[in-house]
Write a structure and sequence with these properties.
The chain has about 425 residues and is an alpha/beta fold. The chain has twelve helices and eight strands. An eight-stranded mixed beta sheet has the order 1-2-3-4-5-6-7-8. A hairpin with a 5-residue loop joins β1 (about 50-60) and β2 (about 65-70). The two termini are about 40 Å apart. Zinc ion binds near residues 386, 387, 410 and 413. Iron/sulfur cluster binds near residues 84, 86 and 257.
């Protein structure tokens, strides 16, 4: 685990020295170098999530379901990954017990009000259930759900009660923190669900004032329950799916960042994780009936465009070999200061749109599980304003349908990597 440094405690002269030096070869020097390039965090309320939204996603069943995604406010992750900017929306201190359940209440009250249509039957292989009731929940905390300094373990039971109503509960975690706490949380969710099938108390909270939506996220995700409407009971219907040895049909899903299967690049990302460690954590989840979602970076630092596509494909292969049911492709983006610095040194460029398209085509073509590409800010990866919206629509459709659709032909750019 990293030393837990933050910008606030690094002496100024150390920061100034780090700013003028190349990216360190020595792992022990990298935290300083990365932190020295940061600007400040955003001010946050520990009792409100910093964002929440509804999104559509293709479920394991083939249906398109609505997913409530809550970005929890909590203490910063102890790792200092080279490409990470999630620290911007974190706190320097651990939140008090009760704050995380309060954040979930806050978001669910507003999201439930925004999405109240009845749940529909789950048959068929590809049914687009527009306005389907929200059936899955993601609790993303800009770090590890099972980091006790991020999410107080004494809150796990209260959290489980709040999310047990959903068919699938998705949390994120660094592989080093995957272990017994995940099993306890899995059991808490299952117990809460078996409790009596009634809506959890969270659904009876009264509406507070204002919203916790982050404008940037609301723009990038589109469909958000932003209005404070009267609270409507959430449609509750226990799901009969049981945990299987392969993690299919389970309630709990754990998302882990593989980032890349390129061993040298992975080491330089400062994630302090090896491919073996990732594999072992995935195997632990598989043995214990917890589904696995994997984040893969498209074009991490230190790779040129053609290599990046090759390694995105190899990383998807690796994720499926580890038992992933979902792989999420994330284009590496500027924004944390460190990547801007590497770009100035010729060690990083964000991926081009055709690379993202080809990576998604490859992943879907494998037919080993669902593969999605993150479409936020897609225009930043395109050199051609004439076709970017058409390309975005195509990728969105591919995310939902898990089919490789015909490529967009653009007379202006030809869709080539430039
Ligand atoms: S482990 Fe995840 S949240 Fe933590 S620094 Fe790395 S990428 Fe960011
Ligand atoms: Zn074009």
């Amino acid at each position: 685990m990293a030393a837990g440094l933050s910008l606030e405690i690094i002496p100024r002269f150390v920061r100034e020295q780090a700013v003028t030096t190349p990216y360190p070869e020595q792992p022990g020097e990298r935290d300083h170098w990365i932190i020295a390039r940061r600007v400040g965090r955003n001010p946050l309320d520990p009792f409100k999530p910093h964002a929440f939204l509804l999104e559509e996603e293709r479920a394991e069943s083939g249906e398109i379901v609505s997913v409530a995604t809550i970005f929890l406010t909590n203490r910063e992750c102890p790792w200092r990954c080279l490409m990470c900017d999630l620290w911007k929306n974190t706190l320097a201190e651990t939140v008090r017990a009760g704050a995380i359940p309060a954040q979930i209440d806050h978001a669910l009250a507003r999201l439930v009000a925004a999405d109240v249509s009845p749940r529909r039957a789950s048959t068929g292989s590809c049914r687009v259930l527009t306005n389907a009731a929200t059936r899955q929940i993601k609790l993303y905390n800009s770090g590890s759900f099972f980091d006790p300094r991020a999410i107080p373990p004494e809150d796990h039971e209260a959290i489980a009660r709040r999310v047990a109503v959903f068919e699938r509960v998705i949390v994120e975690c660094h592989p080093a923190l995957v272990g017994e706490p995940a099993l306890r949380f899995r059991d808490l969710v299952e117990e809460a669900r078996a409790w009596d099938g009634k809506p959890p108390s969270v659904l009876n909270v009264s509406m507070g004032s204002g919203t916790a939506l982050t404008p940037a996220l609301s723009l990038r995700r589109g469909r958000i329950g932003a209005s404070a409407q009267p609270l409507t009971p959430f449609p509750v219907e226990p799901c009969p799916a049981k945990a299987g040895a392969d993690g299919l049909g389970t309630k709990l899903e754990l998302a882990m960042g593989l980032e890349t299967a390129h061993p040298e690049v992975l080491e330089k990302l400062n994630k302090r994780m090896t491919l073996d460690q990732f594999r072992r954590a995935a195997e632990f989840l598989r043995r214990n009936g917890i589904a696995l979602r994997v984040f893969v970076l498209v074009r991490p630092p230190f790779l040129h465009e053609v290599e990046a596509l090759d390694w995105a494909g190899r990383s998807v292969d690796f994720a499926f070999d580890c038992g992933a049911t979902v792989v999420s492709l994330v284009p590496t983006r500027f924004g944390n200061g460190a990547l801007e610095e590497l770009a100035g040194r010729g060690q990083f460029s964000p991926p081009k749109l055709p690379t993202l398209e080809a990576a998604l085509e490859y992943g879907i073509g494998l037919k080993r599980g669902r593969v999605f590409v993150d479409l936020w800010d897609l225009e930043k990866f395109s050199d051609c304003p004439a076709c970017v919206e058409q390309r975005r629509r195509r990728l969105h459709e591919m995310n939902l349908r898990q089919m490789v659709l015909r490529r967009v032909i653009c007379e202006r750019c030809g869709g080539r990597i430039r």
